[in-house]
Write a structure and sequence with these properties.
Elements: E1 3-6, H1 16-19, H2 29-38, E2 43-47, E3 53-62, E4 69-77, H3 86-100, E5 106-112, H4 116-124, E6 128-134, H5 146-150, E7 152-158, E8 176-178
Parallel strand pairs: 4-5, 6-8
Antiparallel strand pairs: 1-2, 2-3, 3-4, 5-7, 6-7
């Protein structure tokens, strides 16, 4: 049986098979280390009994007041472990940490507008598009138009502190902002 455990710095030497995925954003070592040191309770891996990493999630807490929230910086599952519910498990775990440890009002994440599989997955978890962020990502050369490839959707899910759902909006796909307007 696999186990969800805190991400350790040494895990960076064992997750290349996950980061080779086209949709996974990769970062410099100091970026990962900064997250592990600042938000260790928001970084986790799922590991097999043999020690193979199946996937990971990295998040952070940010904002103040009603904008206090958890942010999913990275979520990735190795291809051979997809469709087992690991993404849902990671997201539920990060939502719980954001709610209980950081008293967040919502959890947000960014996803490429052309990554329809991920968008549908997040929507099935209760997330909705809050806004489209122009030129949020670098171009992969995959989309039907350069706009679709580079833009990202800011998706959000309200937590217990937002019973009126003020952190989400119904027409988020119609709202477009510049990447410079996003903190």
């Amino acid at each position: 049986m696999s186990v969800l455990r805190p991400f350790r710095a040494t895990d960076m030497f064992k997750f290349n098979h996950i980061n080779l995925d086209l949709w996974t954003e990769t970062y410099a070592i100091n970026f990962y280390l900064g997250y592990f040191s600042r938000w260790p309770d928001m970084c986790a891996v799922q590991e097999t009994p043999q020690g193979r990493i199946m996937g990971y999630v990295m998040g952070k807490a940010e904002g103040a007041g009603t904008e206090r929230h958890g942010h999913v910086t990275a979520l990735s599952v190795a291809p051979e472990y997809r469709r087992l519910g690991l993404s849902r498990k990671f997201m539920s775990w990060l939502e719980q940490v954001s709610d209980e440890n950081y008293r967040g009002f919502f959890v947000d994440l960014y996803v490429r507008c052309v990554n329809t599989a991920a968008i549908q997955m997040y929507e099935s978890f209760g997330y909705s598009v809050y806004r489209r962020v122009k030129e949020y990502y670098s171009n992969l050369g995959l989309g039907l138009s350069p706009r679709d490839e580079e833009d990202g959707f800011d998706m959000r899910k309200p937590l217990a502190r937002d019973p009126m759902r003020r952190s989400v909006r119904a027409n988020g796909r119609d709202i477009t902002v510049s990447a410079h307007e996003v903190p």
